[in-house]
Amino acid sequence: MDLNYSPEESAFRDEVRAWIRENLSDELRDKVLNYRELSKDELLGWHKLLARKGWVAPFWPKEWGGTDWSVVQRYIFEEECGAAGTPIVVPFGVRMCAPVLLRFGTDAQKQRFLPRIYNGDDFWVQGYSEPGSGSDLASLKTRALRDGDSYVVTGQKIWTTLGHYGDWIFCLVRTDSKTEKRQDGISFLLVDMKTPGITVRPIILMDQGHEVNEVFFDEVRVPAENLVHEEGKGWTVAKYLLGYERMGTGNIAGSKRELARLKKMAGPLLDDPRFRDRLTRVEVELMALEITNMRFLDQLRGGRAPGAEVSLLKIKGTEIQQAITELMMQTAGPFAQAFRPVNGESAFDRLTASLVPRYCNVRKATIYAGSNEIQRNIIAKATLGL
Amino acid sequence: MDFEYSDEQKLLAETLRKFLNTGYGFDARAKIVAGPAGWSEDVWAVLAEMGILSVPFDAEHGGFGGTTVDMMVVMEALGEFLVVEPYLATVGLGGRFVARGGSSAQQQRILPTLIQGKLKMAFAQTEPGARYDLRQVSARATKSGDGWVLEGDKRMVLHGGNADLLVVSARTSGGARDADGISLFLVERTAPAVTVTEYRTLDNLRVADVKLADVRVGREALLGGEGRGFALAEEVVDYATALVCAEAVGAIKYAHDATLDYLKTRRQFGVPIGSFQALQHRMVDILISYEQARSIACLACVKVDSADAAERRRAVSAAKIKIADACRHVSQEAVQLHGGMGMTEELKISHTFRRLTSIAQAFGDADYHLERFATLG
Questions:
Q1: The whole model's pTM is what?
Q2: Whole-number Å distance between alpha carbons of A147 and A271
Q3: Distance CA A378, CA B281 (A)
Q4: Per-residue pLDDT reduced to its tens digit, B243-299
Q5: Residue in B206, B202, B298 with CA at minimum distance from that of residue B248
Q6: Three-class SS string for chain A?
C-alpha cells in the first residue's frame, strides 16, 4: 500500500492540470463555480474539447477511444477536473448508453452510435422513471408494440434530466404485458427525439431551475434495429447500466473543491466550535470516502462491471454533498435568504444568493439514480445476502 | 499509489490468523482473562517465535524491518480476536519510544530482548486531571549526582503491572502545562520506591497506577534529549493511535460479521430477522461504517511515518475521529441487533462491544481529536 504518487503519476497530474488551464475558459469556470445552468452548447463544447484530446471516455476499451489509464490515472483526472471546476461530462451517453452498447449492442449499433457519442455529436438523455414507477422501476408501463420493422411507443417518462437538450433518449419500455415476471416484459430502446409524437415538458424544481422534464410518447415509431439486446431482456441491460450510473454520483472530486471553498467562506465561523466540529466531521468522512473509492476502483481493475459497492459510494457521497451545501448556506447567515434580484444587482452577491437554491437543488442527490434507501436495499441483498 | 497488501503482508496476516484461530478462540481467551495475570506467557512466547513482536524494528536489532502498513495487518488480526496480551504497550509504545528516541546503546540493550519476548514495556504518562494532553506533566525529575530522582503519580498505565520497563514522562523544567521541559526516563518496574497498583479495565486488559517516590535512576535512563520529550511522546502516541485504529478495524469487522450472521440465523415471526427492512438498513450502515473506518485507518497507517509532522498529526486525528465514531456506532448497533443475547457475557459480541468502547476513548476521544484537527489549520 502506498498513497503517494509515483513520478510518472505526478507527471500525468501536471499534464492534466496544464491542459485544463489552457482549455477551460474563465467564463465557463465561473459559471460552474457559481452553480449557473449550462447551455447545451456549453456542455457539448467541453465534451468536444475532451474528445479532441482523447480524454472524454477514459474507461472505454482502447479500440473505441478509451485511454487505457490505470485506476490512479483515472482518479487523478477526476480530481483535477473537480478541483479546477470544469463542467461535467454529461453521463448519459458516455457513461451509461455506451457501456450498454459495448456489452449488449450489435456491431452495427456500436459502429453507428459509439463514435457519435464519443465526439459529442448527439446529446443523450435517459428515459427510465415514470409517474407510477419510481423506486419500483420494473412496474413501468410505457408500451412498445411491434409493428413490422418498428416499435410503436406510447407512454410517459418523468424526471428526464436535461431532456430539453436531448437528441436521443434511451428508454426502458414494456414490449410484453403478459409475462409471469414483469421484468421479463421490459426492453431497452434507443429513440431519436426528433421522431414525431414526442413532447418534452419542463418540470420546474423548488430552486426555480429547469433541469428535469416530462417526456411524452404518442405512437412514436422506432425502428426495430434500435432495440438493444433481445426483446424482453431490457431489465438485464437496465441493471448493468445502473452500476455505471451510480459510479459517478459520489462526486468526490467536486465535494473536495466545495469543501475547500466552504472553509474559505466560513471565515470567523471557523472559531465557533459547534460549526467547526460539524465541518471537520464532514471533511473526515470525505477523506475516508476518497480512499474507499480508490479501494473499490482498484477492485474493478481488469474490467469487472461495478457492483453493489458503488451503492455505498452513492450513499456516502450524496450525504456529504448535502452536508456541504447545508454548511455553506449557514456561512451566509441572514444573506443566505437572497434568491433573485428584482430591480438591479447592487448589494446582491451572486454567489451568496446561489447558496439557498443550491441547498434546495442538492436535495435531489439522495433521491436520484436510485434513492439512498433503494441503495441500502441493494447492498442488503447483493453484498450482505439478506 | 497502490491499495493492495503485498504478498508478504498477506502471508503475515494468514500466519497470525491461523495461530489465533486455533490457539485464541473465545473460550481460550476467556481462560486467559480469568487467570491471575490476565494474559498468557505462552501466547506471548508464540508471538515472539512467529516474529510478530519483531515486525516494526530494524534488522540490526533482530527486527523484520516492517512498515506501519505491516503493523496494520497485525493489529487488525489482534483486534478481531480481542487479544489481551501487551502488544500495543510493548511494541507500539515502549519499543517505538526506544526505536525512535533511544541511543544506540539503549536500542541494543532493549530491542533484541523485547523482540525475543523477554522484555515487556509500558508508557507511564497519564496524570490526574490531564486527560489526553501530553503536555500536562507534573511528575518531576531532579538531577542528583550522576543521575536523576523521579517522583510522580501516573495513572491508567496500559499493562504497567506486567511491564519490565516503564517509559516515564517527568518534568525537568517548565510549568505543569509547558511542552518544553518534559523528559522521558526508562525505569525498571521493580525498582525500589516504584509502587504499582493493578486493575482490570472494561475490556479485560490490565492497567496500573504507578507511584514514583524518590526513584533513583542513572544518567543512562534518560531517553532522548533532556526537556525535549514532548515531541517524541507526541510522535509515538500518534503511532500507537494509528495502530489502535487498525485494531478497531479488526474488531469492527468481527462485529459486522457476527451481526450479519445473527440476522440470517435468528428467527422471529417465522422468518429470519434479517428479512426485515428496518434491520437490513441498519446492517448496511454498519457495513458503511466498517468500510469508512478501514479507509481512514489505512490513511493513518500510511501517513503516520511521514517526516512532515503536520501531515502526520492531521491524518492521525482524522482517523481517530472517524474510528471513535465508528466504534460507538458499530458496537451499539451490533448489541441492539443481537437483542438480549448481545447483552450477555457469554457472547463474544459483548466483549467486542467493550473493546470498541475503550478504543473510542483511547489516546483521545472524538472531541479531543476534532479540536486537534481543527487547530492544525
A1: 0.94
A2: 69
A3: 10
A4: 999 999 999 999 999 999 999 999 999 999 999 999 999 999 999 999 999 999 999
A5: B298
A6: CECCCCHHHHHHHHHHHHHHHHHCCHHHHHHHHCCCCCCHHHHHHHHHHHHHHCCCCCCCCHHHCCCCCCHHHHHHHHHHHHHHCCCCCCHHHHHHHHHHHHHHCCHHHHHHHHHHHHHCCCCEEEECCECCECCCHHHCCCEEEEECCEEEEEEEEECCCCHHHCCEEEEEEECCCCCCCHHHHEEEEEEECCCCCEEEEEEECCCCCEEEEEEEEEEEEEEHHHEECCCCCHHHHHHHHHHHHHHCCCCHHHHHHHHHHHHHHHHHHHHCHHHHHHHHHHHHHHHHHHHHHHHHHHHCCCCCCCCCHHHHHHHHHHHHHHHHHHHHHHHHHHHHHCCCCCCCCCCCCHHHHHHHHHHHHHHHHHCCCCCHHHHHHHHHHHHCCC
Question: Measured between beta carbons, which residues in chain B are less than 8 angstroms from residue A3?
Answer: 1, 298-299, 302-303
CATH number of the domain enclosing A278: 1.20.140.10
Rounded CA separation A177/A99 (Å): 28
Side-chain half-sphere of A118: how many Cα atoms within 13 Å?
A: 24
**Among residues A282, A313, A285, which one has the least CA distance to residue A299?**
A313
Residue A49 lies in a domain: yes
Domain encompassing residue A352: 248-383
What pLDDT digit, counting tens, does each position of B27-76 carry? 999 999 999 999 999 999 999 999 999 999 999 999 999 999 999 999 99
Q: Which of residues 183-222 of B touch A (CB under 8 A)?
A: none
Please give the C-alpha separations between residue A214 and each of A125, A210, B123, B287, in angstroms, as whole numbers: 12, 11, 67, 37
**B296, A291: Cβ pair inside 8 Å?**
yes
- Residue B228 DSSP one-character state: B
Interchain contact, B292 vs A289, CB within 8 Å: yes
Alpha-carbon gap, residue A144 to A157, rounded angstroms: 13
CATH of the domain at A199: 2.40.110.10
Kindly provide the ipTM of the predicted complex, given to two decimals.
0.94
Angle between helices B309-338 and B366-375 (to 10 degrees): 150
CA–CA separation, A153 and A144 (whole Å): 4
**How far apart are alpha carbons B319 and B325 in whole angstroms?**
10
Residue B101 at interface with chain A, using a CB cutoff of 8 Å:
no
pLDDT at A154: 98
Judgement on whether residues A367 and A313 belong to the same structural domain of the protein: yes
Q: Structural domains in chain B?
A: 7-118 (1.10.540.10), 122-227 (2.40.110.10), 231-375 (1.20.140.10)
Contact A150, A223 (CB under 8 A): yes
- The last residue of one of the domains, among A197, A232, A267, is A232
Residues of chain B positioned with their CB less than 8 A from the CB of A291:
295-296, 298-299
A135 contacts in chain B (CB < 8 Å) = none
Termini Cα distance of chain B: 26
Q: How many structural domains comprise chain A?
A: 3
DSSP 8-state class, residue B62: T
